[in-house]
Design brief:
Structural class: alpha+beta
Shape: elongated
Radius of gyration: 21 Å
Oligomer: single chain
Order of helices and strands: EEEEHEEEEEHEEHEEEHEEHH
Distance between the termini: 30 Å
Largest sheet: 4 strands, mixed
Helix content: 25-40%
Number of strands: 16
Strand order of the largest sheet: 2-1-9-10
Number of helices: 6
Number of domains: 2
Amino acid sequence: MITRYEESDESVWIPVAQGLDGGPARAFLPSRGFQDAYRYGYKAETVTAPYFEALSEIQQAYIDGDSRIFLVNKGTKKERQSRACWRHGNKAGAPHLGPSLGWVAVAVSDLEKLSDHELETALRVANKKFATLSPPLAKPVLCRSPSELDQEVARIYGEGVREIPMGQGVPEKLESTTHVFVRDAQVVAFTLQKAQGKCECCQQPAPFVKASGLPFLEVHHVKRLASGGSDRVSNAVAVCPNCHRELHHGARAKDLADELYTLVQRLIRE
């Protein structure tokens, strides 16, 4: 369970809302600084306060389970509304959101540096309603060739993956006889570790273990890099060679990709 923020706290719980219509998640972050007024409360009765005051009230309302019934639709319908909500934007008609995805504990000193994506990823990876963004995200280990990628993945995997990779939103494309993308070895190693030796598509064990000691699984980007997909753990799965080929060339490729979003909780549609 979360706790209400006090001024001397070094960490704070941040609410995160599911994305609207399948879009990215939205967190209650100080996008306009700490002193600006933020709108929060019941959908029919919002108020404004500086960031930390608004955040504390949202937290307390969630802890207490505060809700009220309002008459909506010009008084023709009763609707129960939660007070643990905020407007995503300061205008009265901005989307009204609540912690439908969950809560993430973060360092107060990092608040102005965090993004919605980082908090969403922390919750998806934890596969729980509560997560802690600690340790910090691992910086990319960029590899410009398949052999370099294999070498770095084996090293990172062998050392143990302790941090969620930051990944790359738009990987660099290299020119050669064919197009090759610069890949982050941290993302590959993290994805392989999460799979625990099993294909995340068919759920079967890897067909064999490589000389490096890693299970032979291939990391597939659900939205392909060539289609503008990111090189992040929220877009990557570890799959066996058969599933990998079917995801690229099979008649059921689109259906399999849709199933992966259900099977693998850390995935986020792009």
